[in-house]
């Protein structure tokens, strides 16, 4: 008998946490924070409805915040086991957690100084010291190498695209194969190899972010060319909020290639993301995890100005030239992009390109929905900038690609659990799987527990 507790990404996209109780060992697959809507974010501050000290091992599919961002809280709550992932995943997690802790500390300090928090005093979600304690528990695993977790339980990490180091995880529990998809990447990603497909799954835990959508035919090059020309003509700024991991490097590569092919002029391009810069360095450190050649990597980095201080952020804002700025965060929830927005979102010659998925409740989603003013650091700013959106650059597989990913499974799974999706996506993808495969599909609720008997 195995008990499965859905502690996150159930009925929603973020906060991935699946707790597996077995008679030999207890495993937590991913350990992310909730993002987006306020009621979800507030769950982050609540104790988990399990005994944290009973968790023996954490397995990480990849390094994104919604899959790793709760780790320091787990450690401060009593967890002291191993945190296992591929080398790039742990390197990315380290970067993201350090950056996140710094932001939490700075925001708590600012809230206390300016008095805009309802908490007195405002406290950081976790600190840099908490992250250091967490990183000490990291343990690297090679992709495709089965590792023993206990006498009758082993795990294997298999590349699935999405971001550098990302994997799906097969956990063999008493001869039953549990497959945790993580976030599945695109088969034709410009930087990453196509995801490996699972061959067998007795119990499948499947992401459904785009379970109800087909990504539009990729026309991002045409859109970038159009926006660069418009920005130059208006002598304005093109702001591209971007996730620091993969998305930012992909945008850098595309803009460099457009220039290299003489499709756009030599407009100044700035990359302003300390975390993004750190992740960029990982592309040099882990060449076997991506397609970019050393020559292309060096040429791209030479072409784009990398901002390495907050002082240069302000210099870039004041730079009168038409320019492109890529900065985190991707859903406009934090990061350097907010500083640019406070000075540029109320200008009609500012263009903002939102790329990929925007979760409910985020500033990115609100801008997409046409909000007239946006709240940043406790103040409201008129939105006079023109907002554009492109979903073709998403690092998540769409419905057809998700269905293709499970098409190589040879057996009939005893149960498919759909997670990591909003309700419409979950319902649509569930219907598709039943139509095509006639498999048993369940959409668990948040904090639901399923008992699997075999």
Q: What does the model show?
A:
With 454 residues, the protein is an alpha/beta fold. The protein folds into 2 domains: 2-213 and 396-452, 4-Layer Sandwich (Metallo-beta-lactamase, Chain A); 220-390, Rossmann fold (3-Layer(aba) Sandwich), CATH 3.40.50. It is built from 14 helices and 22 strands. It has helices at residues 38-41, 65-68, 71-76, 87-114, 128-135, 220-234, 247-260, 274-285, 294-303, 310-318, 337-344, 363-368, 399-405, 423-437, and strands at 2-8, 17-21, 26-29, 57-59, 82-85, 138-140, 147-150, 153-159, 167-173, 176-180, 203-207, 237-241, 269-272, 305-306, 323-327, 350-355, 373-376, 379-382, 386-390, 415-419, 441-442, 449-452. It has a 7-stranded mixed beta sheet with strand order 6-5-4-3-2-1-22. Strands 7-8-9-10-11-20-21 form a 7-stranded mixed beta sheet, with helices on one face. The chain has a 6-stranded parallel beta sheet with strand order 14-13-15-12-16-19, with helices on both faces. Helix 4 (87-114) runs antiparallel to helix 5 (128-135) and helix 7 (247-260) crosses helix 9 (294-303). The mean pLDDT is 94.
């Amino acid at each position: 008998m195995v008990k499965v507790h859905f502690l996150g990404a159930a009925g929603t996209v973020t906060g991935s946490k699946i707790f597996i109780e077995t008679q030999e060992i207890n495993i937590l697959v991913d350990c992310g924070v909730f993002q987006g809507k306020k009621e979800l974010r507030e769950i982050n501050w609540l104790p988990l409805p399990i005994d944290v000290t009973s968790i023996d091992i954490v397995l990480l599919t990849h390094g994104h915040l919604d899959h790793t961002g709760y780790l320091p809280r787990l450690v401060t709550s009593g967890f002291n086991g191993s945190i296992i992932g591929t080398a790039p995943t742990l390197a990315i997690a380290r970067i993201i957690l350090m950056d996140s802790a710094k932001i939490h500390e700075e925001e708590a300090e600012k809230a206390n100084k300016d008095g805009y928090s309802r908490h007195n005093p405002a406290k950081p979600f976790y600190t840099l010291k908490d992250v250091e304690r967490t990183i000490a528990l990291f343990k690297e695993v090679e992709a495709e190498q089965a590792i023993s977790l206990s006498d009758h339980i082993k795990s294997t990490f298999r590349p699935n695209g999405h971001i550098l180091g990302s994997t799906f995880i097969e956990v063999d529990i008493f001869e039953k194969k549990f497959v945790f998809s993580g976030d599945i990447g695109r088969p034709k990603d410009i930087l990453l190899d196509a995801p490996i497909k699972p061959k067998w799954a007795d119990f499948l835990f499947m992401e459904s972010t785009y379970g109800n959508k087909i990504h539009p035919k990729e026309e991002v090059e045409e859109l970038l060319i159009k926006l660069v020309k418009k920005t130059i003509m208006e002598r304005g700024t093109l702001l591209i909020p971007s996730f620091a991991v993969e998305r930012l490097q992909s945008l850098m590569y595309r803009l460099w290639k457009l220039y290299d092919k003489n499709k756009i002029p030599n407009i100044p391009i700035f990359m302003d993301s300390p975390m993004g810069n750190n992740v960029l360095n990982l592309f040099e450190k882990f060449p076997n995890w991506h397609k970019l050649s050393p020559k292309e990597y060096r040429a791209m980095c030479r072409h784009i100005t990398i901002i390495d201080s907050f002082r240069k952020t302000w210099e870039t804002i004041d730079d009168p030239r038409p320019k492109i700025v890529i900065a985190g965060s991707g859903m406009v929830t934090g990061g350097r992009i907010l500083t640019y927005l406070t000075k540029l979102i109320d200008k009609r010659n500012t263009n903002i390109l939102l790329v990929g998925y925007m979760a409910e409740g985020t500033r990115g989603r609100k801008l997409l929905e046409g909000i007239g003013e946006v709240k940043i650091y406790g103040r409201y700013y008129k939105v006079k900038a023109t907002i554009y959106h492109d979903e073709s650059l998403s690092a998540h597989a769409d419905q057809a690609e998700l269905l293709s990913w499970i098409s190589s499974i040879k057996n009939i799974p005893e149960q498919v659990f759909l997670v990591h999706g909003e309700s419409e996506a979950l319902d649509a993808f569930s219907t598709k799987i039943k139509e095509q495969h006639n498999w048993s599909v369940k959409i668990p609720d948040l904090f639901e527990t399923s008992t699997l008997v075999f």
